[in-house]
């Protein structure tokens, strides 16, 4: 009785074909995590823009109470839930950088970094140095500079 099996050449050909398939398919799968992080940054920007628009328009409505911040013509506080507590601060009618995180929900792997009083970074801290802007995978919110200059939204995705 003859036993039939695969020859060494047949096995090598199958291994070569599998290797070619892996080499061609791997870059596609390797880029998925980068694409996912980029899309998260994009969604953060959309969320901040929507939150900013909502709070801005609510602050213009007479049904919401606002109060000026003494000595600061650029700042005022808004009572968005009409409970007598002015919990949201606006600069030139737009969200103050420290109020962004109150208006959006973030995953636990994302970090927030404040740089001075103008810039807020939201993204990943890959190297663990508490600096998000050096990892090049973030959303940056720049506060409104004046009554005629609205906030600036920027994404940096080169490190994602």
From TrEMBL:
Report keywords, A-Z: Membrane, Transmembrane, Transmembrane helix
Protein biosynthesis recorded as keyword:
no
| Listed PROSITE patterns | PROKAR_NTER_METHYL
A UniProt-annotated Pfam family: N_methyl
Q: Sorted alphabetically, which InterPro entries does this protein's record hold?
A: N_methyl_site (IPR012902), Pilin-like (IPR045584)
TM regions (residue ranges): 6-27
Q: What is this protein called?
A: Prepilin-type N-terminal cleavage/methylation domain-containing protein
Organism the protein comes from: Pseudoalteromonas spongiae
Q: What taxonomic ancestry is recorded?
A: Bacteria, Pseudomonadati, Pseudomonadota, Gammaproteobacteria, Alteromonadales
């Amino acid at each position: 009785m003859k036993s039939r099996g695969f020859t060494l050449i047949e096995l090598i050909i199958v291994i070569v074909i599998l290797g070619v398939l892996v080499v061609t398919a791997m870059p596609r799968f390797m880029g998925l995590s980068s694409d996912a992080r980029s899309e998260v940054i994009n969604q953060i920007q959309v969320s901040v823009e929507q939150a900013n628009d909502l709070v801005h328009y609510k602050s213009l409505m007479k049904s919401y109470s606002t109060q000026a911040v003494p000595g600061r013509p650029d700042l005022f506080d808004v009572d968005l839930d009409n409970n007598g507590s002015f919990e949201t601060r606006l600069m030139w009618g737009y969200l103050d950088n420290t109020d962004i995180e109150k208006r959006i929900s973030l995953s636990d792997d994302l970090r927030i970094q404040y740089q001075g009083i103008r810039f807020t970074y939201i993204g990943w801290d890959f190297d663990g140095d508490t600096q998000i802007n050096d990892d090049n995978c973030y959303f940056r919110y720049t506060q409104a500079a004046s009554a005629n200059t609205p906030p600036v939204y920027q994404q940096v995705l080169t490190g994602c």
